[in-house]
Write a structure and sequence with these properties.
- The complex is a heterodimer of chains A (126) and B (387).
- Chain A is an alpha+beta fold and 126 residues long.
- Chain A has one domain: Sufe protein. Chain: A.
- Chain A has four helices and three strands.
- In chain A, helix 1 crosses helix 2 (63-76), helix 2 (63-76) crosses helix 3 and helix 3 (89-96) packs across helix 4 (103-125).
- By secondary structure, chain B is an alpha/beta fold.
- Chain B is built from twelve helices and twelve strands.
- In chain B, the strands form three sheets. Chain B has a seven-stranded mixed β-sheet with strand order 2-8-7-6-5-3-4, with helices on both faces.
- Chains A and B meet through helix 1, strand 3 and helix 2 of A and helix 9 and helix 11 of B.
């Protein structure tokens, strides 16, 4: 299988892989997985005054999955909280040249972010 | 560490030995033995003599008579010829094989099943060995053929062919063995082996791709699958590819398991010693009943595709090259009881004639680094990713 230069770059030097301070102020942590697709992801989003200040992720999956998590995390930073609900899979699929048969894996990333958006709402209403 | 290309996929295929290539080149051009070996003129007969010599080289390597060697396009065709010829000539009969066989056998068995042949697939233990008691229980009075590979292409596990053969002999059942991974690594002696047909290939032992052979123990007679000539006693018609056959003969003459086997094993042991130091890694397959060139390792918590990509300058396989594009996990590892995650986290390393200790050390350094990095990326992954 061929991988684009960007996939290779993001897999080898992901800038947002890792974790935020657990329990830190405004940090929301959610996970999603699909065992049939052999993928798992955890997103940690730090919120500040309605905006996404930082995003970090951990991921188990193929190079496309990890690279997409990194790509999405990069684009979420600086966005409003509502951005967590926006579909990202298609954009990542197109931007990174992900094979069509792997699109389902990218939807798992969306699931984690949607859960994060819900958790962020819960955080605000507390 | 400066990246360097390292080939550790000798179980997939091997580079043609320069001595083999030289022998092949003698059969290509105008001043060489280019004639059709079936032609009666001097050009054809010169080529025919080269074919005969190659047949003798192969026969000697496996302890057979030259008349029992039929050239084919490779082990896949040999497997097809063996299974289809026997089972289609015995309508209503029964075939026994194993779930860990190469697709060439499994897919042929499945095709035969669609044509009414009863097929039993033996399970295997977690170490990859078939259970001889299960084989005993599988025989029926309609069993015509058992097909069991000698060396598993994904794990290197070596089945006890002598024990399987003895059971077949006692019941008057034919035994076919796919020995594509065996030649040059393990001694093959069909004079001693209680086997009736053996599939061979050239490209796993530094011969050319596209040529193989089927050993058939006399006086067993098979029906052809192809029609259109009298080559190979009409069992496998078609103009003989002199250069490929000569290459196969030369490769078999050069492949000395007594000399190369220990060298390969030493390299593999060096590799395993280094990999086993990584936390949690496990070896897939029986630790001692194993061909000297194959090492199948599971890296729990590490996505196999990501690891293969991360060590992209190192050629390894996820299971069988024949299945490289198949997103399904290895049927061999699944049959051995590995979870889908663990099977997907497994890589096959296979050493060969040109592997050096320095290459092994380089691979160890790179694998250790990338396994550590990928595990960090997936640090919080749940247990199902690691078991």
């Amino acid at each position: 299988m061929e991988y684009s230069a960007e996939i290779q770059h993001r897999l080898s030097s992901s800038s947002r892989c890792g974790g935020l301070q657990q329990g830190g102020e405004g940090v929301v942590t959610t996970e999603a997985e699909d065992r049939s697709l052999n993928v798992w992801v955890r997103f940690q989003v730090q919120l500040q005054r309605g905006s996404i200040r930082s995003v970090r992720f951990e991921a188990y999956g193929c190079p496309h999955f990890v690279a997409a998590a990194d790509w999405i995390a990069e684009r979420l930073e600086g966005q409003g909280v509502a951005a967590l609900r926006e579909p990202r899979a298609r954009a990542a699929y197109a931007a990174l040249g992900v094979p069509t048969e792997k699109l389902g894996k990218l939807l798992v990333l969306e699931n984690a972010l949607l859960a994060n958006a819900q958790a962020a709402d819960d955080l605000v209403t507390q | 560490m400066v990246a360097r290309a390292v080939y550790l996929d000798y179980a997939a295929t091997t580079p043609v030995d320069e001595r083999v290539a030289a022998a092949m080149a003698e059969c290509l051009e105008r001043d060489g033995h280019f004639g059709n070996p079936s032609s009666t003129h001097r050009f054809g007969q010169a080529a025919a003599r080269r074919v005969a010599a190659a047949r003798e080289q192969i026969a000697q390597r496996i302890g057979a008579g030259t008349g029992s060697i039929t050239f084919t396009s490779g082990a896949t065709e040999s497997d097809n010829l063996a299974l289809q010829s026997v089972m289609l000539a015995n309508p209503g009969r029964h075939l026994i094989t194993a779930r860990t066989e190469h697709k060439a056998v499994l897919d042929t068995a499945a095709a035969l099943a669609r044509r009414g042949v009863a097929v039993t697939y033996l399970e295997c233990a977690t170490d990859g060995l078939i259970d001889l008691n299960e084989l005993d229980a599988a025989f029926t009075d309609r069993t015509a053929l058992v097909s069991i590979m000698h060396v598993n292409n994904e794990t290197g596990v070596v089945q006890d062919i002598e024990a399987v053969g003895e059971r077949c002999r006692a019941r008057g059942v034919l035994l076919h063995v796919d020995a594509a991974q065996s030649a040059g690594k393990l001694a093959l002696d069909v004079a001693r082996w209680p086997v009736d047909m053996v599939s061979l290939t050239a490209h796993k032992i530094h011969g050319p791709k596209g040529v193989g052979a089927l050993y058939v123990r006399p006086p067993l007679s098979l029906a052809p699958l192809l029609f259109g000539g009298e080559q190979e006693r009409s069992l496998r018609p078609g103009t003989l590819p002199t250069h490929q056959i000569v290459g196969m003969g030369a490769a078999y003459a050069l492949a000395d398991p007594a000399r190369e086997g220990p060298v390969l094993d030493s390299l593999r042991q060096r590799l395993w010693a280094g990999l086993s130091a990584l936390a949690g890694v496990r070896r897939n397959g029986h630790p001692t009943r194993s061909a000297p060139h194959v090492l199948n390792i599971a890296f729990p918590g590490v996505n196999g595709e990501s690891l293969r990509h991360a060590i992209g300058e190192i050629a390894v396989s996820a299971g069988s090259a024949c299945n490289a594009d198949n997103p399904e996990s290895s049927h061999v590892l699944n049959a051995m009881g590995l979870s889908p995650a663990l099977a997907e986290s497994s890589l096959r390393f296979s050493v060969g004639r040109y592997t050096t200790p320095e290459e092994i050390d380089y691979v160890l350094g790179r694998v250790a680094a990338e396994v550590g990095r990928l595990r960090q990326i997936a640090a919080g992954a749940p247990n199902w990713c690691k078991s």
